[in-house]
DNA sequence: CTCGTAAGTCGTCAATTGACGACATAAGAA
DNA sequence: TTCTTATGTCGTCAATTGACGACTTACGAG
């Protein structure tokens, strides 16, 4: 069964590099490094962070040894992929657009989440994020505390302004409320990309439904909270 | 570095078997098999489906060879764990209670999800489910089509009855609406157990907030759908 | 053209890892 | 007690896998 592994690796090489790879000769340091990172993000998303360096090298169309010219260990390579792909997938402009009160909150939220689903909550991003979260519990909190928390607060501020209510002082509780929207849409993406659920309802319509429900139910949710904590 | 792996395995043995293991002598076939499966579910949840058989054997307090007396391959062992832990974690009584109209929908839904979070959406269940879904895309759909879909329909039927509205004929669309609740609560569990987010807001209160928002926003969501598809 | 340097590969090592044949031993039936 | 049998372990094999020393070769400056 010596051939088993080799056959698999060969298959990987053909699958992922047939398009642009094959005739790429020598590359300067920075370019090769970038190409490896790009391929590696696809590779680890597909095969998990335990994917083997030999297969990755085949996917890159280079020798396994070459990987170690750019990254001291496999762990470092994985960490770099994580930094590039996970932490770098958020558009700063989103915060601006979300606070543009010339449009209704429903319009802004819908536009944001349609974009967010397409740009960030992709199959690749989700798989990397989940693999990383499962193997190292310290990775996800980075993303959440640094970015998502800000997003939650903007969402709640804009929604509350739109429907004319006051929010509780407890920030944790306010975050939890915003998660009802952000979480349900994130889970929608997980369902589609990770669980491979069928999705015959158009994406934009799904987003609209989630946003509409959030804006229509927010008042009642805040009331429920206040009734509990008075 | 020969000692590295051994030290790790030893650590595993102490951690997971110190309580009941240690003095357990020979066991009849069925009992040993059950004990291995129980330990294996914890082990694979923690270490992923690529966790090694030697470490698992240490956690069980038996030799690695013994595992192969019960399961022909590691893959079979993993599959059996999945069947036991994932597919067997749903209480039939839930469907009954959810349709008991002597209580309000809000009460029923809240009680159900508090129980569901404690019984099914545990750290162990979620980790196994996600690891399995990531490595084999055919696993999650089993659970979803066989169980969750029924749940979604019950939720929608009861909610629609409670607030006195008609549901669209498109079943897929109705499912998608129920997912706004089921998904947001599932994602809440993922946040807590996988992303290790902090959770200072009491669980029961969070569930109440999600349910309240769902029941309060459902009418608007259905309207939004009908407006789009008339 | 020549030569230094950086890009890239080959082959290998030590540790790991799934799997299993051969052997050892405890528990119960006769 | 003795013998059978199921329970359980030891040691090992072949394949894998992260890592790296030694070597080769393309490319550009002079």
UniProtKB/TrEMBL annotation, chains A, B:
Residues 1-27 are annotated as: Disordered. Transmembrane segments: none annotated. Residues 52-71 bind DNA. Residues 30-89 form the HTH tetR-type domain. Keywords: DNA-binding. InterPro entries: Homeodomain-like_sf, HTH-type_TetR-like_transc_reg, HTH_TetR. It comes from the Bacteria. PANTHER family: BLR6905 PROTEIN, HTH-TYPE TRANSCRIPTIONAL REGULATOR RUTR. This is TetR/AcrR family transcriptional regulator. The lineage of its organism: Bacteria, Pseudomonadati, Pseudomonadota, Alphaproteobacteria, Rhodobacterales.
């Amino acid at each position: 069964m010596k051939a088993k592994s080799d056959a698999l690796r060969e298959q990987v090489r053909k699958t992922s590099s047939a398009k642009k790879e094959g005739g790429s000769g020598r590359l300067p340091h920075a370019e090769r490094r970038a190409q490896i990172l790009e391929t590696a993000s696809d590779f680890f998303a597909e095969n998990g962070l335990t994917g083997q360096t030999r297969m990755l090298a085949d996917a890159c169309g280079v020798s396994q040894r070459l990987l170690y010219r750019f990254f001291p260990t496999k762990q470092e390579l994985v960490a770099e992929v994580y930094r590039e792909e996970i932490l770098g997938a958020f558009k700063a402009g989103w915060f601006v657009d979300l606070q543009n009160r010339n449009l209704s909150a429903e319009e802004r939220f819908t536009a944001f989440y349609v974009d967010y689903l397409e740009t960030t909550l992709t199959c690749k991003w989700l798989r990397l994020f989940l693999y990383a979260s499962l193997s190292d519990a310290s990775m996800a909190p980075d993303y959440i505390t640094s970015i998502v928390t800000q997003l939650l607060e903007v969402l709640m501020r804009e929604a509350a302004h739109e429907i004319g209510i006051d929010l509780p002082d407890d920030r944790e509780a306010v975050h939890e409320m915003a998660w009802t929207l952000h979480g349900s849409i994130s889970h929608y993406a997980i369902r589609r990309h990770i669980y491979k659920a069928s999705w015959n309802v158009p994406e934009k319509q799904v987003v609209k439904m989630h946003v509409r429900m959030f804006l229509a139910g927010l008042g009642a949710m805040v009331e429920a909270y206040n009734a509990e904590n008075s």
